[in-house]
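Q: Hi! New to this. If I give you a protein sequence and the SMILES for magnesium ion, can you show me the bound structure?
A: Yes, paste them in.
Q: Okay, here:
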Amino acid sequence: MNNYEMSKEKLLEFYRQMVRIRAFEDEAIELAKMNLTRAAVHTYNGEEAIAVGVCAHLSDDDYITSTHRGHGHCIAKGADMKKMFAELMARESGYCKGKGGSMHIADMSIGMLGANGIVGGGIPISVGAGFALKYNKTKNVAVCFFGDGACNEGTFHESVNFASVFKLPIIFICENNQYAISTSVKKSTNVENISSRAVGYGIEGITVDGNDIEETYREFGKACDKVRNGAGPILMEMKTYRMAGHYYGDNENYRTREEVNAWKDKSPILRAEKLLSQTYGCTEEDFKTMKKEEEKIVLAASDSAKKEKEPDPKDLQNDLYDATYADIQWKAFVKQ
Ligand SMILES: Cc1ncc(C[n+]2csc(CCOP(=O)(O)OP(=O)(O)O)c2C)c(N)n1
Ligand SMILES: [Mg+2]
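A: Thanks. Here is the predicted structure of the protein with magnesium ion bound:
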């Protein structure tokens, strides 16, 4: 079996991961409702098949960069959910010692270079990572997740152009979830497929159905193999839909309920269930059991994070990048 064919075992594992991400997000919303989160929470509901299908092909030595909507990427890459919840609730044992919140979770031990509150901010970071991977002659890749809104920022153009010129091992993944906050992609972008922009950089562009786990897994697998083998960067657009509001508290007055409901039937979790029952004979009972098991794991992580202590205000100024020190070092270096 090659790297991208589906099997029952793989599909079951992917289903569990998608359900786990959904359960994490539903719990994050509950925590926000209880006023336990300390910064904005942007959930990944409806987009799970992208992170799961992509990260299945990556090792800890492959890098990813993420966005403000990063929980799904973190979980699929193997981040610790208790440390994530602790960060959301500003606890000392969180990924950033409770000082960063949802949009700043990073874990270098698994190649997760960070969520990012700056739209498009992860794109040039992935270029730096890709450059380092090539410079060190590795077979690893950098994967850059960003949104349809981010692809209209200048940094997208500069980054993809640079990556193309230097033939860097990067897969740029545009998660086209149809909106940038309240702006429909139809109003902001004058091409049918964002992947068609690849032509302008002399690289391959591919559009896939981002709600179909079989397709995201297979098509990313093929692209990833090419990039690992030196083909240079590829731009992939994964079409999907953000099922929840932009953030917890969004009134969603820019889209109709009919539109949202129409996408509910295309939910990646529902579609995986259909595939599992039609091809592999799984039952409703199986889905219920798996969902319950995953929810239990997620709730245990959340409950245990709730018990962690809050940071000591005395530590506020610790762990900051010391620009003054860096400046002194730089001046000393230049003098030599
Ligand atoms: C540089 C910058 N500009 C604007 C914002 C405000 N902002 C936060 S999320 C967002 C929309 C991003 O849309 P998209 O890239 O499609 O990602 P999505 O939220 O749909 O996942 C904007 C404009 C920001 N955080 N950073
Ligand atoms: Mg978007």
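A: The pocket of magnesium ion (ligand 2) is lined by residues 147-149, 177, 179-180 (CB under 6 Å). Let me know if you'd like me to explain how to read the tokens.
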